[in-house]
Design a protein that fits this description.
Blueprint: H1 2-25, H2 31-61, H3 64-104, H4 111-216
């Protein structure tokens, strides 16, 4: 997974370098050439946003112990894109003002204050968007951690159940062994009693034989 992330990083670096160069050229151009460059930068910024989405998906697949490093890198890339978008908006607004000035002449003298107001509103929207994105990221990470904890708990539960089953089997085997040993001990005692009785009978028989033999003489 990290190799895919690094491949996206290389594409990200190449495209953002081109976008930075083109944004710096926009104020220096005019006419159709400037229009085409603005459209081209807008398209490349869309490609950059798609790369960020792909990198975000890759980070979610990386093991949690290595995820922090990639999250940090992804966060810096998002901040870089935010700066590029802000610079692009400024250059595009300047470009729009220039077009209006060419069409309206003196009637566009208030465009500077309008542009400042627009930039201020844009920055507020961007800050709100960043806060929402950060909140979403925290929610996603919290959900992932919760899923991993649930998976670990499920695994631990299965282990405990298997241990209980082995314990029951062990108890059953011990009970069976105990019954076998008790039976063997009972048979040993019975055999000893029989031997004792047979010995007593043999001894009594010998004594009686000797007695009757002596009495006959």
């Amino acid at each position: 997974m990290s190799s895919d992330f690094e491949a996206y990083e290389q594409d990200f670096g190449t495209i953002t370098a081109e976008v930075t160069n083109k944004i710096g050229r926009i104020p220096k151009l005019s006419g159709e050439e400037k229009t085409q460059l603005v459209l081209n930068v807008d398209k490349q910024l869309e490609e950059v946003r798609e790369l960020l989405e792909q990198m975000d998906l890759e980070v979610r697949e990386i093991p949690i112990q290595s995820r922090a490093m990639y999250n940090s890198r992804l966060k810096s890339y998002k901040q870089e894109v935010e700066k590029l978008e802000k610079d692009f908006k400024r250059s595009r607004i300047a470009y729009s003002d220039e077009v209006r000035n060419e069409l309206l002449g003196d009637d566009a003298s208030s465009s500077e204050s309008q542009r400042a107001h627009l930039l201020d509103n844009t920055e507020k929207l961007e800050r709100s968007s960043r806060r929402l994105e950060a909140g979403y990221q925290i929610a996603v990470e919290t959900e992932q951690v919760g899923q991993e904890i649930l998976a670990n708990l499920h695994s631990d539960r299965e282990k405990i159940q298997r241990a209980r089953e082995r314990l029951r089997e062990t108890d059953a085997n011990l009970g069976k062994s105990s019954r076998i040993l008790t039976g063997m001990l009972r048979r040993i005692i019975q055999n000893r009693v029989l031997v004792f009785i047979l010995g007593a009978i043999i001894l009594l028989t010998i004594i009686l034989a000797i007695y009757f033999n002596l009495r006959g003489h």
